[in-house]
Amino acid sequence: MRVVISFFDKTTNMVKPWAEAGYLCYCVDIQHPPGETREGNIVKVGADIFDWLPPWGLDVVAAFFFPPCTDGAVSGARWFKDKGIDAALRYVQLFRASVRLAEWMGICYLIENPVSTISSYWRKPDYTFQPWQYGDPYSKKTCLWTGGGFIMPEPVHTVKPDNVTEKIWLMPPSPDRADKRAETPMGFARAVYEANK
Q1: Mind listing the pLDDT tens digit for each residue in 60-95?
Q2: Which residues contact 59 (CB under 8 A, 6 or more apart)?
Q3: Which of 55, 170, 183, 191 is least crowded, fewest Cβ atoms below 10 Å from its Cβ?
Q4: 60: closest CA among 119, 109, 126, 133?
Q5: CB 102 within 8 A of CB 148
Q6: What is the domain partition of the chain in residue ranges?
Q7: 2-196, what's its fold?
Q8: How far apart are CA 167 and CA 79, in angstroms?
Q9: pLDDT in the model for residue 166
Q10: What is the signed CA dihedral for 34, 61, 196, 48, rounded to 10 degrees?
């Protein structure tokens, strides 16, 4: 069975199209219960990227990385000084771990973040997109660093500009606000699957 792995993926949105097509999908996130919980073709792994590697012998064909951006997204730059150097260091370490693992695996991959300081620390993204370009009616400029033959899907533009909302910016404070803001848009997830299956 072919395998897809998604790191920092609480919602499992990115792998749902792959799972529906018969791929075995591992979603690694410290917010999942410890160990492994299987739901159909999706295996939720409660682990840190530093503590988990794919089981030996799997036919892994793609990997996706969504390192937490709270301490690196430029939208929160006014709070960087208050957060301190440890927060900035942790952000860069998680992003670096994603890059190293992606390159080590040598397969199709993407690393996702909003507009962030990583472009200054490392390099500019290979692609940017808006959710509304793939059918999800809201704005959130998103950056992708890719490799291993990743194919960026063509936008479908099914949403008219006057129907685009700013739900990400207008989301009220809540305990799960960061998780909601980080959800992978399903239209984009489906488009990536179709372009890279």
Answers
A1: 999 999 998 765 554 544 545 665 676 677 788 999
A2: 1, 2, 3
A3: 170
A4: 109
A5: yes
A6: 2-196
A7: Rossmann fold (3.40.50)
A8: 21
A9: 64
A10: 30
